[in-house]
Amino acid sequence: MTVHSRRDFLKVGGLALVGLGFVPGRRWPAAAVEIVEMRSDAAGSRVWFDPIGLRVEPGTIVRWVVRENVHTTTAYHPRNDHHPLRIPERAVPWDSGYLVNPGDHFQVTLTVPGVYDYYCMPHEGFGMVGRIIVGKPLGPGAQAFDYWTGRAGTEGWHHVPEAARKAFPSIARILSEGRVHVANPAR
Ligand SMILES: [Cu+2]
Predict the structure, then answer these.
(1) Would you list the domain boundaries of the chain?
(2) pTM
């Protein structure tokens, strides 16, 4: 069963009204929706986003859906527990909060071109992260993990943990494949 949160409806409605406008007598073009599943093996020892890497066009709705275990989808952004900025400067950071039941979901509409890195709050240290490229590979997410070191205003930012660094698919691979899956996820 799918649980639709009120927030989702408001976001989709907002997109339709603001982004597309209303033209009497015409159908509204439907926004593309991409699904990212939030996965886990039975023991909870392997956790991952599927796909872990995704390329979309600006204006795409990305919807994360829980399949197993408990997860969040949370943008790399200082407003989210002092994580480094790894989404475009003009983009709005998101944090789903805990999604606890299979079918629970959260979605955002990504309009600003660039690289968006995100993580799962309880599982970041286990490498549960994902990367979305909207249009072109621009912005802080396209830079090295420690690009901000020593810059004013970054005091208190956390470095991306080692397991997460290893898990991110490269920008080049996402651009060439469009959709990148975790290899041998259940092992
Ligand atoms: Cu998780």
Answers:
(1) 6-180
(2) 0.84
